[in-house]
């Protein structure tokens, strides 16, 4: 169904977002690439809400790929997302995708210090809720890796 979408409206973005964790990593990556092909239309239409929805969905897609240990595609997605020019009031997404990049690097290097430094910085600048979310995602990724190592 998603392969036939030409214009990624709020409806299709929300539909993809709500089904990400039901799809295979290959499907998630492929559909994410289709969404990214339509990014110029979304940004040119000046629909801030659609841009926010798109970035949220792509963030979830990246997390799905990381949790599925598909680091190659996760980092590829992050690289493409970082090319999107965002308005200054959406810098939260820049931070989030930098964080997800650190998580992807952790999966390959097992160096947790950059992640913990970022989480600590979030606490220091008065963003404890975001720090807690980042910590929860990190714990989930770490537990997922530990389970795979024990198997």
**How does the helix and strand content classify structurally?**
mainly alpha
Query: How confident overall, as mean pLDDT?
Result: 91
How far apart the termini lie comes to: 35 Å
Largest sheet: none
Number of strands: 0
* Global shape: globular
**Approximately what portion of the residues adopt beta-strand conformation?**
under 5%
The total of helices stands at 8
Rounded to an integer in angstroms, the radius of gyration calculated over CA atoms is: 16 Å
Oligomer: single chain
Low-confidence segments, given as residue ranges, are none
Helix percent band: over 70%
SSE arrangement, N to C:
HHHHHHHH
Notes on the protein architecture:
This protein is mostly helical and 151 residues long. The protein is 75% helix and 0% strand. The protein contains eight helices and no strands. Helix 1 packs parallel to helix 4 (48-67), helix 2 (25-37) packs parallel to helix 5 (71-81) and helix 4 (48-67) runs antiparallel to helix 5.
Question: Topology, pairings included?
Answer:
Layout: H1 10-19, H2 25-37, H3 39-44, H4 48-67, H5 71-81, H6 91-109, H7 113-124, H8 128-150
Describe this structure in a few short sentences.
The chain has helices at 10-19, 25-37, 39-44, 48-67, 71-81, 91-109, 113-124, 128-150.
């Amino acid at each position: 169904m998603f392969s036939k979408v030409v214009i990624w409206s709020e409806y299709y973005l929300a539909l993809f977002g709500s089904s990400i964790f039901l799809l295979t990593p290959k499907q998630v990556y492929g559909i994410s690439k289709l969404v990214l092909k339509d990014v110029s239309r979304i940004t040119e239409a000046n629909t801030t809400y659609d841009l926010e929805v798109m970035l949220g969905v792509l963030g979830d897609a990246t997390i799905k790929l990381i949790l599925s240990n598909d680091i190659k595609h996760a980092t590829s997605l992050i690289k493409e997302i970082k090319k999107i020019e965002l308005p200054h009031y959406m810098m939260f997404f820049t931070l989030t995708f930098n964080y997800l990049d650190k998580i992807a690097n952790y999966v390959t290097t097992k160096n947790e210090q950059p992640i913990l430094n970022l989480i600590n910085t979030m606490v220091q600048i008065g963003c404890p809720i975001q720090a807690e979310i980042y910590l929860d995602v990190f714990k989930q990724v770490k537990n997922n890796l530990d389970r795979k190592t024990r198997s």
